[in-house]
């Protein structure tokens, strides 16, 4: 009888050990990859614990971030290295470096993980690379000083914010041609598009507002301007697209816009000179990279309050969609 009990307990122990072994894979929380431009590295944040797991060295003053969820890769733009670096999002190591041109800044990946787009600030173009072999497919001329980019959820369109041209280039991802150019506010930088493909939002650094573009390809799109605080930089949607969060660089704050009424419904104080912003895959928590503080603020997008502050490194920018899933 005693022998039977011992064997039974041993079997239970084996089952528990296997469960513990496989649990991290099954229950892994998203990671946030934050570029730290002045320290030449990328902080990897465990969003479950709000702890930095590792700082990955990336030379070339890293700025932009894009995550390929299919290949488990993270693309980091490196303007002073004239290209971008590819990171392994599982092993947290650099895999490759790719040369583009002199002013690589904004970076994005398509919805299938097959192409990565790099906006060149100086050459006024977007370079398109195949993610399989990292070879250049095509370069497309856009407006002056392209910065932020966003891909529509149907993977049909690439939107490019042209800061100096005060415009957005709309690129057809099937033909790889510019379909149209839309005039927005003064010096647009960050950009995002809603999940339905009905609205486009740009943060306009010099006009202190957000441009809302109601997209309709059968006629001219409707343009609406929403005032925010000083020098808005980047934008991110949360709460099923009902709230838009905007980083205000010179106000050290986040403006919250109700997308149903297009009114500012709150202002949240964060670290000094907030820049990059992205929404956690839970659609509730919003992470903000603070340049002067070298921190990331975590905001509860429902209650509109800061629920955590994470120390990263010097010159945190996190410009782009920086979460794994």
Average pLDDT reading:
92
Number of helices: 1
Task: State the major sheet.
Answer: 5 strands, mixed
Strand content: over 45%
Number of domains: 1
The first-level CATH class name: Mainly Beta
Q: Report the count of strand segments.
A: 28
Tell me the strand order in the biggest sheet: 7-6-5-4-28
* Class computed from helices, strands and strand pairing: mainly beta
CATH superfamily: YVTN repeat-like/Quinoprotein amine dehydrogenase
Helical content (DSSP H or I, runs of 4+): under 10%
Cα-atom Rg, whole angstroms? 21 Å
- Which consecutive residue ranges, at least 5 long each, have pLDDT under 50? 1-27
Identify the overall geometry. Answer: globular
How far apart are the termini?
49 Å
Q: Give the ordered list of helices and strands.
A: HEEEEEEEEEEEEEEEEEEEEEEEEEEEE
